[in-house]
Design goal:
The radius of gyration is 43 Å and the shape is elongated. The protein starts with a helix and ends with a helix. Helices cover 38% and strands 16% of the residues. Among the domains are: 222 residues, Glycosyltransferase, CATH 1.50.10; 107 residues; 32 residues, no CATH class; 36 residues. Strands 6-7-2-9-10 form a five-stranded antiparallel sheet. It is α+β, with helices and mostly antiparallel strands.
Length: 615
């Protein structure tokens, strides 16, 4: 019987613990970020859009920041409340400066207004008025003779005309004039800073090719202009340096110029003049993730490879020392890869679908980050009054790209077709399959150790595919490694693969896990106590009984302990001197049996049970 009771007790306790754990896991899953696994991609994104609208509706216009209004408008495409916020924060109606950078804020508003097909001529004019020549670059002119023959070349600029010689080893000699000088290497003509805006006409007595090169001051990397010019013997080529940046304080604003380049490009304006400055100084500004901006503008393979290789854990992007966070930086990268078939884009979208909040947003229901991610990863088709019947550019067989890329493809802009970002170009980039490029398609659990290029199959690795590092201690413990933890996360001491990262675990998950541990501990203690009570129940009953009966009957109220009252309570007092009844001598020798009263029977029963328990 005892064994059966113990078995049942443990069985019930085990079921209670299992139920508690199951309920906790179910609660964690429902309240954690893994919404996509239970609802599916479509429902997850619909919930994210609804969450964004709810967050905007819950705020007064005066409490909505410019950044929230811009990226909320980019995502939703149309929201009068957000438009009103942007208009109220404008300076003279044509520029903005809430974040401290008028160039960046104005460029972002230009991008948002292009999204809703709002007139932006005044905004573009203000931005273009802030152009200055980028003084951080050194410029060179290169002249090549394909036949490697010696040649004589004439240089014309301003009112000067100078003759130089090209030797068989392609080195230069002679006097190139006041604006030019022969570089230390002897192969190029260095352009003096005060002649950057000049036009240089070149003519040689042999077939020749001329091009521009540039580099950042005190840097070793040389960049070659994408445009080259060739001419037959005695023909001419024209080299013009067109390198600009944007500034509101007589110095180039790198991040502002990045945003202006893609905003102006989406407005069918030429942004190629900003590329030399942006490319040459990209190594000094990696915190802004420049490869994302540059790839969106140029679709160049080098920028593509840099962007793909900078993805972390095949999940997200976070630039070194970023002024933002992984949500913002990942949205930038996803915007750049928006029209590609890169597996990195798919992996990142899957990852962010799995970490939405319980309301459906991202980063603790952050309006800016949620809007930016939705615009970049899952853009909505925006139908305005002028474009309600506009056909899709991609569905019509064309490509959505930048103005610069379209020009590079010798295409033309098609204004009658809709693109969520960029312009509709009549030409598509000519892509090959990965196998045709002798590359490999790495899986989501691998990374490319060499250069990655775009292909018809997605990201194509021209090196080798190597396995990702094994899961670190932080991820094993339910956390994630970041450069810093967000407000809704706690920093833990678990190790990360990158020594510069810290382990971050959701505060909600941590408190729920701690609460679960407390309840399990309590249940285990209860199980032990119940088991001990069953095993030693007889001894416990004996101890309780002895304590109840220790010291005899309780003293009567009103008399000191240990003294017996003269008469039982409730009985009449006998008069002093009253004679006692004395038994007759005939009865004195007989044994008498005491009366079997109720109290006696209870006492006997108690003693019997006590004896049984002690056996």
């Amino acid at each position: 019987m005892i064994k059966k009771r113990i078995f049942l007790t443990f069985l019930i306790s085990f079921l209670m613990i299992s139920f508690a754990i199951a309920q906790s896991n179910e609660s964690n899953n429902s309240s954690s970020s893994n919404t996509a696994s239970s609802t599916g991609s479509g429902e997850t994104i619909n919930k994210a859009y609804q969450c964004l609208e709810n967050q905007i509706d819950s705020k007064q216009e005066t409490s909505i920041s410019l950044q929230e209004a811009i990226f909320g408008l980019l995502a939703l495409g149309s929201d009068q409340k957000l438009i009103s916020v942007i208009e109220e924060k404008s300076i003279n109606g044509n520029h903005w400066g809430e974040s401290g950078s008028e160039i960046k804020d104005t460029a972002q508003v230009l991008l948002a207004y292009n999204r809703i097909n709002k007139n932006t001529e005044n905004i573009k004019s203000w931005l273009l008025s802030k152009e200055i020549s980028s003084a951080d670059l050194l410029w060179f002119i290169q002249i090549d003779i394909p036949t490697r023959n010696q040649a004589s070349c004439t240089l014309s600029y301003k009112s000067e005309e100078k003759i130089i010689s090209l030797n068989s080893d392609q080195t230069l000699s002679g006097n190139p004039g006041s604006c030019l000088s022969i570089s230390n290497s002897g192969f190029w003509l260095k352009v003096n800073n005060n002649c950057i805006d000049e036009n240089f006409t070149i003519s040689c007595d042999e077939d020749f090719v001329s091009s521009l090169l540039y580099q950042r001051s005190s840097a070793s990397t040389i960049f070659v202009s994408p445009e080259t010019h060739s001419a037959a013997a005695l023909g001419t080529t024209l080299e013009t340096i067109n390198s600009k940046c944007l500034s509101s304080s007589n110095s180039c604003d790198y991040e502002g110029t990045l945003w202006s380049a893609i905003a102006l490009d989406s407005s069918n304006s030429d942004s190629s003049k900003y590329l030399p400055y942006l490319l040459a100084l990209s190594e000094n500004n990696v915190k802004y993730l420049p490869s994302a901006f540059l790839h969106k503008i140029t679709l160049g393979p080098e920028q593509y490879s840099q962007l793909i290789q900078s993805q972390q854990q095949n999940k997200y992007w976070q630039a070194p020392n970023t002024p933002y966070n992984r949500f913002y930086d990942s949205a930038l990268a996803m915007l750049s890869l928006q029209s590609s078939s890169a597996i990195e884009l798919s992996n990142s979208k899957d990852y962010f679908e799995s970490i939405t909040t319980t309301d459906g947003c991202w980063n603790n229901n952050n309006i800016r980050d949620t809007g930016f991610l939705l615009y970049s990863g899952w853009p909505k088709t925006v139908q305005t009054s002028s474009s309600s019947s506009t056909p899709s550019c991609i569905s019509s067989g064309y490509s959505c790209t930048s103005e610069f890329s379209c020009s590079s493809l010798n295409g033309s802009s098609l204004s009658d077709y809709y693109c969520s970002s960029g312009i509709c170009c009549s030409e598509k980039p000519a892509e090959q399959s990965c196998s045709a490029q002798n590359g490999l398609l790495c899986t989501s659990q691998e990374t490319c150790s060499g250069t990655s290029v775009s292909s018809l199959d997605g990201s194509c690795c021209l090196g080798s595919c190597t396995p990702l590092p094994s899961t670190n201690e932080c991820e094993t413990s339910g956390g994630a490694c970041w450069s810093e933890c967000d407000s809704d996360e706690e920093q833990k001491s678990f190790s990360c693969t990158d020594a510069g990262d810290v382990c971050c675990i959701s505060s909600t998950s941590s408190s729920e896990g701690s609460s679960l541990g407390i309840w399990i501990t309590i249940l285990i203690i209860l199980i032990v106590l119940i088991a001990l009570a069953i095993i030693f129940r007889k001894r416990i009953q004996l101890i309780i009984f002895k304590r109840k009966n220790q010291g005899g009957p309780s003293p009567t109220k009103g008399f000191p302990p240990g003294r017996r009252p003269p008469f039982p309570p409730g009985m009449p007092m006998m008069a002093r001197g009253q004679p006692r009844r004395i038994l007759s001598s005939s009865n004195q020798g007989q044994n008498t049996r005491p009366s079997n009263s109720k109290e006696d029977r209870e006492m006997e029963e108690t003693m019997r049970k006590l004896k049984e328990m002690s056996n």
